[in-house]
Amino acid sequence: MTPFPRADYETIRRYDPERAPVRIDLSDNTNLWGTHPGALERIRNASTNDVARYPDLYADELRAAVSERFDVPLDSITTGAGSDDVLDSAFRAAWGPGAHISYPAPTFSMIEPFARMNGLGARSVSWPEAEADPSLLLDGDPSLIYVCRPNNPTGHLAPRVWLDELLEARGADGPLVIIDEAYADFAEDSVISDAPRIPNLLVARTTSKAYGLAGMRCGFAVGAPPVALAVEKSRGPYKVGGLAAAASAAAVRDDEGWLPGVIRQCLENRALLVDALDRRGLQPLPSSANFVLCAAPTGYARPDALALRAAGIGVRPFSGIPELGDGLRITVGPRELMETFLDTLDRTFVLEAAS
Prior knowledge:
The protein starts with about 25 loop residues before the first strand and ends in a 7-residue tail after the last helix. It is built from 12 helices and 12 strands. It is about 35% helix and about 15% strand. The chain is globular, with a radius of gyration of 20 Å. The protein has 2 domains: about 5-30 and about 260-350, Aspartate Aminotransferase, domain 1, CATH 3.90.1150; about 35-255, Type I PLP-dependent aspartate aminotransferase-like (Major domain) (Aspartate Aminotransferase, domain 2). By secondary structure, it is an alpha/beta fold. The strands form 3 sheets. The chain has a 7-stranded mixed β-sheet, sandwiched between helices. A 3-stranded antiparallel β-sheet has the order 9-12-11.
């Protein structure tokens, strides 16, 4: 008999970020300005059929909104219960004997677990090495290459010329390159509209960040039609709730013009936060996302994060960041939240350049 669960599941741990509730949570990169008003209006106007009946098989209303917003064909769009559901489905479609995924690290923490859950090997290349030579990601003939752009947790935006070199390294016969654009709304560059005409590219997006819909668990991706179809088959039907898809469609269309204003405030406050952290000697990394990663004040990320959490502020600790060591990731939010964070930081730690 085949044992359940399979043997390698013994080493897979259930995700647990160890986040006790706090007064101000700056740990998960969600939209601290709130939820898109068009999405909220759609939720408030929900009907019985929105919840009593099965949703569209493949979230057609959301696909139509994505098609209009990014000028891409309907058959190039797939959806999921969050962009991580799309990633999980793509990984599952890539399984085969000896198949593996490669990725620059550090990056989104669920990539290696998703790979292992789906029977894939996982091979990481440090970001400095991968950026100096993208061909390193092709070593060992991976089935998939994952790149988070802008990257989580560093906020780094890999240059477009680097991405082009990676995609062209083996042409259409190369591995599928998945670009995770969860934070692309906060960056100056995106490749989502190019994806339908590049046969080995899939670009994933989420409504959990800029649109303020993390609780609805909805995402989408764009690729060449055969790529989108493969993900659809792997994921299966009815995976996106009808109300989640409808609310997300309203947010993606952004008829109210709400999103640009929120993005502008976020970028302004990001610059102010970077400057404040720099004046405190905490080496903030340049960021193209809605968060900033800086050095841990005492050099020990987890204890420092716990100290801030005890003071009512939640941040996310990371260790082993190239050229930084241990660090804390801080979500950018409205000015008053950033000022409260900085005041708490100054009260919690003795910093040489505190101001």
